[in-house]
Amino acid sequence: MPFGGGPCTIASITLGATVFLVSCGQSGDGAGSLGAPDGETGDAASVDVTAERDGGPMSQDALPLGVGEAQTDALGADTPAIEMRVTQLLAAMTLDEKIGQMVMVDYGALASPSDVTTYFLGALLPTGDEAPSPNTPSTWLGMVDTLRRQALSTRLRIPLLFGIDAVHGNAKVAGATVFPHAIGLGCTRDPALVAQVAQATAAEVRALGLSMTFSPDSDVGQDERWGRTYESFSEDPGVVSQMVAAAVQGFQGAPGLLACPKHVLGAGGTAWGTGVMGGIDQGNAVISEAEMRSVHLPPFQAAIEAGALTMMVSYSSWQGTKVSASAHWLTDVIKGELGYRGFLLSDFDAIKQLGGDSPRQAATAINAGLDMIMMSSGHAGFIADVKTLVQNGTIAASRIDDAVARILRAKLIAGLFDEAEPYGGALGDVGSSAHRQIARQAVHESAVLLKNDGVLPLSKSARVVLAGPGANDVGVQSGGWTLGWQGVTQTGATAIGGTTLLTGMQNAATSSSLVTYSWDGSTVPADTSVGVVVLYENPYAEYEGDTDDPSFTNTSSAQNPSGHTIYDGLAAGVVSRMAAANIPLVLVLLTGRPVRIESWLPHFGAVVAAWLPGSEGEGLADLLYGDAKFVGKLSKSWPHDSTILPLSSTLNAGGPPLFAFGVGLTTP
Ligand code: GLC
After folding, report:
1. How far is residue 614's CA from residue 474's CA, in Å, rounded to a whole number?
2. Reported confidence tier of residue 495, pLDDT bands at 50, 70, 90
3. Which of 10, 87, 299, 531 could be joined to 218 by an S-S link, Cβ 3.0–4.6 Å?
4. Domain range enclosing 302
5. One domain, residues 226 and 93
6. Pocket test for ligand 1, best of 106, 312, 374, 375 (most atoms within 8 A of CB)
7. Does residue 336 sit in the same domain as residue 402?
8. Does ligand 1 have an atom closer than 6 angstroms to the CB of 219?
């Protein structure tokens, strides 16, 4: 049955219990064109839709016309049936319904849940620090379900996409399993494990009715001064590509969830001093096209081949042009050369960084190839702007149709149309012991042993002092994007859950009293046989993690252009006090990047880069006591105290490292 594009016949589509009498034709041509429901002239195919609706759920087998089993089992496979369904829906949509699908707005900006219905909104998100109160899995499910049902009460019942930053587990949600951040997962060199982590995360996201995760980060971070270094799997495009593909397949292994590889393109290749706050994040990648293609593009090609149907575009620029405004990268390369058939999502309010007023920003972004615009608020104004831009020809109707077709395709392939109810019964998945076991294994494989003179593994009957504030704080272990955007230290009111390194060691020792804690290293009992010093970075995210020098002694106010305290200056005191105890020492680093430690190396018999391991601190205790073996290999080169940054094996930049990419000792 022909739909859209030209005079077509009267057809009846039964969508669930809703019957639409549909006829379509060229807008304004009269013949067969009965006009859209509200009389407005829309686009290529205006449609008259009269429907009796009982509000029943739209189900997959409701679509006759040979559509049949429109969904695919394996997420990511497009089929002729899917394409026919896209065409049918597009032909039935008004311009308002189409533009509404191109909006992803902060749910906190809605005047009421009915905004979803009023504006036919296609997608929502929580901002970094936004959560229902109290922050529990069930309150998340209740909030998401209310908003999802709004979308299902619209004329065409196009399901809502609800995205969240589940970048190391669904860690905005209290009680969720918090997995190691990507820089550690890159050190595992174990894509099967990364896929398992993504699958577990997907289950904890789907359990709340959410349908999209803004991950995997697919950036190839080159400069450790970048506050997002920990979100990137590696400085090496091959490692990043392998892990991104595994994560996409893990996230999309079951219906109902879309991965969203990010940030297209070159976010990890920007130059210090060009960043949004004067640092490096959201800055300018002053690199050749060849370097963009060889270093930063491969992970997104891998993501597309793995079935990615949404990808997020970077705030950053390339050679002075915002990527959000770059038809070259978005349309010519990503959609053209790579054949990407999913949709491109802007970053949060990223189009506001483009020149001109709101309509100009919208036109620039959409004409460059952005298909869905993520915004903090202003959805009504945006929709009105874009409608005017289409009606005055600034944005072609075909561009809108292409964008909406991509969005519909992603929602159809993800099985969102078929999902009648959220997995309310799956609330037990959130923070489950099975997922925590996967996280513990990920901690085992992500930590890297950089030095060991034999002090490791520790004896479980030895008296151990654990020193440093990070030793007893799941928030410090977890880093950014945990409960809140910038992460939390565990002094906060809402518990993350999980175990600290201290608890893990006390549980593992033959007697918990054998492991004592001294937050500043000033208390070392006389019969102590070994000290474990934990140095850390205070949690941070994005540009608030940019630092002019990744060093524990960098306490200058310039350490971070936005004033965030990353290094609190306590480290040197802890090291000197523990060194004065004249006992064997182990250094454990809870950091989002390699941090300069060369001058302190002689004090330590062993050095462990634990990165940001997340909620399962017991996994670190397993490694220190030898219940698990070290296998991790550095995913990022480690600078000397004097190294000029950026330091990258990929770019052969910065000179010889203190520890090279790929280094990692094993334990017997
Ligand atoms: C942020 C980040 C992006 C995140 C998005 C939604 O600014 O750049 O990685 O997914 O906004 O929180």
Report:
1. 7
2. confident
3. 299
4. 11-428
5. yes
6. 312
7. yes
8. no
